[in-house]
Amino acid sequence: MFLMENSLVKDNPLFLPLNKDKTVYDGFITVQEVGLKSHPECRSIPPPQYYSQLISEMETLGWDKLLFIDTQFRTLRLKAEDSSARQHILTIKLKSKHPAEAPECSADLPVPLALTWTAQSTLEQIHSQFLLCLQSLAEFWDVLDEIDTKTWILEPEKPSRSDTMRRIAIGNNVSIKVEVDPRHPKMLPECCLLGAEHGGSCLWSAGRNPDSSVLHNLRDVLEIEFPSPATHEKSDFNVECGICYSYRLEAAIPDQVCNDPHCGQPFHQACLYEWLRALPTSRQSFSIVFGECPYCSKPITVKMAAQKS
Ligand SMILES: [Zn+2]
Ligand SMILES: [Zn+2]
Predict the structure, then answer these.
(1) What is the ipTM of this complex?
(2) Considering the domain 239-309 in this protein, what is its CATH number?
(3) Has residue 49 got a pLDDT over 60?
(4) Which one of 25, 37, 210, 243 has the largest count of C-beta atoms within 10 Å of its C-beta?
């Protein structure tokens, strides 16, 4: 029995046993089947006309728009330029039944990408729809580009085209968090002031001049002059945490500040919470710990950091 089965497999390397005891066989299987079983995504190998269709669509669109295509000819990256000469990328994953089945499209946008596809649609049409979508967001990116070039951005570290939030440095340990609405970018954004003596107070301001830029309106409403790359170094603002001595702790920046005007030492929320909780002189009430600033011994409070899931 054993001899027979061993010689069977030896003589026929593609004759594979189906069970552990090597007693059940399912006839010959081909190399292609083995390949398909281990790579289920290969099951849908497109028909030859897929490739001719793709080439003719790319010729209509223009090969200069193609940034990348994978070796399977299934994923394409197309470039697109908006009216302010910003470069954008549209990623298209074609289905094997292209163009009958709609491709999956994605891009770095602050709003969901909504493109319409019918069985008659082409890459050129999808590219034009994408350009229209970019056009509708041009004002939003103009507002953020002005903020990004004329102020010091503390967060996000490297803003992407989909980021709607900016934390702007105002002074030593004081920053403002603004949220720009991609659909109403010229509206004065929702602002949240962070730092000593402000402790995260949120401001909603009514007055604004529709002829001024968002940055100008912010400056007028808050009555502050934003430090800019022209007037300040970034190191003036990214002051490290007084407990761990670093600026970034995972994604967090030191946003808890000692309220004593002579101290003003910043800390990460997680660092300050752990530090105060470990001291016998501290007192905890629900999620808030009351203790003393490790630098100046003046009273300081911190909320328990939100649990990361
Ligand atoms: Zn820290
Ligand atoms: Zn202090």
Answers:
(1) 0.92
(2) 3.30.40.10
(3) yes
(4) 243
